[in-house]
Design a protein that fits this description.
234 residues, alpha/beta, 10 helices
Length: 234
């Protein structure tokens, strides 16, 4: 099973008011394990970067001035995404900016049916708790000490670890998965150990007549058994 974890950085909160995507980072998971394949790109937004947004991610007008346009690398991005499910934290935000950029390029939007929102998953698992990426990383013991500012690829890497934990962690086979999923997720050495175990027939749970007779003879031959202490002979 292939899934893509992704995160975006933008000039603001709403593409409808002119905000643009300036960075995207993507991590490929295969059977909920990072494959090592990633996609990362910066984009020139063709507008000024608000100081409030720059304070969050540190991407300045000067830094982005020589970066390509989204339209210049859109086909490489879409080839990486393929038709896989897309996982994001507060996913409607990231989907909104991604689809806005695709619309500006005259391309079809990514279907919302592909969206997996880790905020929604976390709310179901931990109702009433904080559901920010920082708070959930702290809850699951994910190291984010190197995260000074937001960054699309860095946040996608943290989110990949969080998503794996939200889906059952490294011991996914202990969750209520289907038999087919468990078979896919077992490690090869576990299969070898299981195959090497000898198959033994079920043991009978009722003594035979011969065994009962031998037991009676054995008890009759005992000299003053402890359970008869204090019992007067008949």
């Amino acid at each position: 099973m292939r899934e893509i974890i992704f995160d975006t950085e933008t000039t603001g909160f709403d593409p409808a008011t002119g905000d643009r995507m300036v960075e995207i980072g993507c991590i490929e998971l295969i059977n909920r394990v990072p494959s090592g394949s990633t996609f990362h790109a910066y984009y020139n937004p063709q507008r000024a970067m608000p100081s409030a947004a720059e304070a969050v991610h540190g991407l300045s007008d000067l830094f982005l001035s020589d970066k390509g346009l989204f339209a210049d690398g859109v086909h490489e991005l879409m080839a990486f995404l393929g038709d896989s499910p897309l996982v994001a934290h507060n996913a409607k935000f990231d989907f909104g900016f991604l689809n806005h950029e695709l619309k500006l390029c005259g391309l079809e939007p990514v279907s919302m049916d592909r969206m997996i929102d880790t905020v929604a998953i976390a709310r179901q698992m931990h109702p009433g708790a904080k559901h920010s990426l920082d708070a959930l990383c702290s809850r699951y013991g994910i190291d984010r000490s190197h995260r000074v500012k937001h960054g699309a690829l860095l946040d996608a890497e943290l989110l990949a670890q969080l998503y794996i934990e939200l889906r059952g962690g490294r011991q996914i086979g202990l969750t209520l998965a289907t038999i087919e999923e468990e078979q896919e997720e077992r490690q090869p050495d576990a299969l070898v150990m299981q195959a090497a175990r000898p198959v033994r027939p079920a043991r009978p749970h009722q003594a035979s007549a011969q065994e009962l007779e031998r037991h009676r003879a054995f008890v009759a031959a005992l000299d003053r058994p402890l359970w008869l202490d204090g019992v007067q002979p008949a």
